[in-house]
Amino acid sequence: MKILLLTDMPPCRRYTAGLVLERLVRFLPKEEVAICAVINRSLIKEVEIPSDLADIPTLVLQKPVESFPRILPSGLLCVVKFIFELIQGMRVRLQLLPRIARFAREQHIEKIWIILEGQTMIRMARPLSALLKVPLYTQVWDPFEWWLRANRVDRYTQKRLLTEYDEIIRYSASCATASWAMSDAYSKKYGVKNLPVIASLPEEYAPKLLKAVDNGQQFIIGMAGQFYAVDAWEALISALDNANWRVGGKDIFIRVIGGYSKNLTTQPKHFEDLGWKSQEETLSILANTDLLYMPYWFSDEFHLESSNSFPSKLVSYFCVGRPVYCHAPLYASPTKYILNKKAGYICPSLDAEVILKTLEHVILDKGAYQKMGTRGKECFLQDFTLERMRTTFYQFLDIHQSDDTK
């Protein structure tokens, strides 16, 4: 049984998607997988498949442009973007599909595992499966609507592509979703077999014993990853400004790993910007903070994303066993998970008083604080280890555990 991974980001050690796919590909015997990566031109030189996976047959192609720049008046822009998308669709059908189909036949592919990210993958999914006469297994990172908005796709093309997206999911032999909430929604909407395949970490990364952290009069809040939920972040900063950065008798500091921007704060002296770190370094730093901040979108514009996506940073937070402060609406996917597991503090408001009251409770209630860290680690061991990820991944691809090579 040989599987074709069709993706716009190859397994690599850069970018979230590349890191996740590197782990997933390693679950498969090398002789049973081939990779076709249709990559954005600006990223081709930045991403590289790890050397120990280089013997996997791989076809690298350049992706048609999927984001149209805003250079024309809005009325004319819609027409031009519509024509632009038609041309890009023709490029997919006439240039990419034949080359990918030929490569797949040469590799004797029996299944397609496709990452549904962007217009190009949507346009290729069903036609390639039909050409090869093999089943299609789809994996979704985020709701497709978000991608269409972010890349300014015209409304007519959006409607057509969303219809095709729905048909692809219904056509799929199985679908890997981004969260339990998305899986529930897809079961109801599409009636297709689907499972949440969550980016996970090795069990040995979790500390055997959860140590107490003593930062004295400083209370350090850790934050890892991108600042996509700007509304939540700005509300937190505003609330701390109002309190002069002192809550529950502690001076509040924020330690940031990853995509921090100094434009997001009015008090740089309360921040420690560590930049990008390796995964192991990140976990070590997070383990020495008092609280881990997990913001998610409140804006109605991102209701679908907040409801269905699952933040990879939460897995890292649970792994190190430090208490989590989830700043997100009650309908958000991480909020629902944390409430169900009783594994963190929930602040479902942008109101400064609510934010500060929740933070004060974290600092003053020592008994609840210890329980939250313990429950977070329990969540990690139950739902977010590589063993759990592999089991769910095999179920998604209809691979029996006995098929795994040692």
Short description:
With 406 residues, the protein is an alpha/beta fold.
Description:
This protein has 406 residues and is of the alpha/beta class. The protein folds into two domains: 3-200 and 386-403, Glycogen Phosphorylase B (Rossmann fold, 3-Layer(aba) Sandwich), CATH 3.40.50; 204-382, Glycogen Phosphorylase B (Rossmann fold). It is 44% helix and 16% strand. The protein is built from 14 helices and 14 strands. Strands 3-2-1-4-5-6-7 form a seven-stranded parallel β-sheet, with helices on both faces. Strands 8, 9, 10, 11, 12, 13 and 14 form a seven-stranded mixed β-sheet that branches. Helix 2 (74-106) runs parallel beside helix 3 (119-132) and helix 7 packs across helix 12. The chain is globular. The model has no long low-confidence stretch (mean pLDDT 90).
